[in-house]
């Protein structure tokens, strides 16, 4: 081997990634919350092929923007924003750095900034599939919604009810005071399930109480939005597994670090179904504990 060939060969060796050149991921945490901690734990459990460090904004947007500004290509291979605050702080992130946002309700508006990630809302199709699985003899789903907040969810639901042999009966309202009259209409339409989609108007405690009281009176199964709703008396609610969202985010990160471009947003792949056993018994519904994803809550 002559000297020139040796120099070229040696130079190529130097360009190869060595032990100290592992890909580095910055995980920017919005604040210290147990849900975020569970997601980071899941992420870390699946991040075996790269190094990662956690940077906590502590709920301070200015601090978050400074953290994002300090992350530079070459020293950082990928940025994972955990939570809405971290996602919005990413507006100051170097545009050449790949960005994943996770544990957020909706994709953030980041002009000229390609991003992907995992939203925290259970997918509409996934919910409808499980409703049919849990209650196969019931198929008329009544849903009240405020178009200002949840029109997209209703459009999505309309596209997915047929494959699950379900009929959707949505009624729009403008204010909470419309709920009692709308519930009477749904009763006349012979709905046999009440389903709540994520909606600021319907998620208010007073609005939920109206739905719950009607479900008891008419002996209708009510699918709420959270374990709190189930504990209050709703039959069930779909909830996400935060640790699995972290694992899902890590798998997305692995694809991006391998050079694959990802621009689509993913819904949580794993759902927990919280069920109130007292309500189940009152409604005369067969034991839902046979389904592995069901968790009973008192």
The fraction of residues assigned to DSSP E strands is 15-25%
The assigned structural class equals alpha/beta
Stretches with pLDDT under 50, minimum 5 residues: 3-20
Query: What is the CATH domain class of the largest domain?
Result: Alpha Beta
Mean pLDDT: 91
Q: Could you give the order of strands across the largest sheet? A: 7-6-8-9-10-12-13
Q: CATH architecture of the largest domain, please?
A: 3-Layer(aba) Sandwich
Helix content: 40-55%
Number of strands: 13
Give the radius of gyration. Answer: 24 Å
CATH topology-level fold name of the largest domain: Rossmann fold
Q: How far apart are the first and last residues' alpha carbons, in Å?
A: 77 Å
- Sequence of secondary-structure elements: HEHEHEHEEHEHEHEHHEHEHEEHE
Biggest sheet layout: 7 strands, mixed
What does this structure look like?
- With 298 residues, this protein is of the alpha/beta class.
- It starts with a helix and ends with a strand.
- Helix 2 (34-46) crosses helix 11.
- The relative contact order is 0.13.
- The protein has helices at 3-15, 34-46, 61-70, 84-89, 124-134, 147-160, 179-188, 200-203, 205-218, 227-232, 242-257, 277-282, and strands at residues 24-29, 51-56, 78-82, 99-104, 116-119, 140-145, 167-172, 193-195, 222-224, 236-240, 265-266, 271-275, 294-296.
- The chain folds into two domains: 3-120 and 243-269, Rossmann fold (3-Layer(aba) Sandwich); 124-240 and 272-296, 3-Layer(aba) Sandwich (Rossmann fold).
- The strands form two sheets. Strands 7-6-8-9-10-12-13 form a seven-stranded mixed β-sheet, sandwiched between helices.
- It contains twelve helices and 13 strands.
- The longest helix is centred in the last third of the chain and has 16 residues, at 242-257.
- Helices cover 41% and strands 20% of the residues.
